[in-house]
Amino acid sequence: MELIDGKKIGTEIKREIAEQVKKMIDADERPPHLAAILVGNDPASETYVTSKGKACKEVGFDSSTYKFESDITEEELLETVEFLNNDPEIDGFIVQLPLPDHIDENKVIQAISPEKDVDGFHPVNVGRMTIGLPAYVSATPNGIMELIKRSGIETEGENCVVLGRSNIVGRPVSILMSRTTNPGNATVTVCHSRTKNLKEITSKADILIVAIGKPEFVTADMVKEGAIVIDVGIHRVESSETKSGFRLKGDVKYDEVAPKCSFITPVPGGVGPMTIVSLLMNTLKARKKEIYS
Ligand code: GUN
Question: Which atom of ligand 1 is nearest to the CA of 138?
Answer without folding.
Answer: 6
